[in-house]
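Researcher: Good morning. I'm working through a list of sequences from a screen, and I'd like to move beyond sequence-only analysis. For each chain I'm collecting a predicted structure so we can compare shapes side by side. This is the next one on the list. No need for commentary yet; just the structure.
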Amino acid sequence: MMASRRSSEELIFQGQVTVNGNVCDKPQTRVDPAKDTIYVKGNRLPKRLPPKVYLALNKPKGYICSSGEKEFKSILCLCDDFLKSWDKNNPGQPKPRLFSVGRLDVATTGLIVLTNDGDFAQRVSHPSSNLTKEYIATVNGEVHKRHLVAIKRGTTIDDVHCTPEYVELLPRQPAISRPRLRIVVIGDL
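Model: Good morning. Structure tokens for this chain:
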């Protein structure tokens, strides 16, 4: 993948993309990199695309799920060894450009999927997929029934009311002193 979907649209609207010698002016234009000659900003895209890659990563605390911010480490640097060995393990194949499917906050740990498959990422992360996401939140202070009721009522984000499917206070564990909540969301929150 050379650019994100939005960046690709901008390049097309700016007249920076040609397909078989013609300026592409519609983002929904179907192309086949193996058959079509595609140039972006004067650079030809390779005929061979890297194979689709899907990695499951347990994101550690202190890492961000993008490559833009400089004050934090990106989860992509956790794949450096994988990418350094790419040419040896996949001779002749272009290196994949990995990105995360969704995001987790810098202070959050948990499963995150990395891929180079934009269609897969869009299908999985779009709210219409109705995929279940489960979060375990460790909180400061005591949790009372009124707190659980308030969380179950949901909240409004960008004029959309978001309500969790399920909320529960987990039993205390000897090794964990703070209360933990299990929150299940269907779709996107």
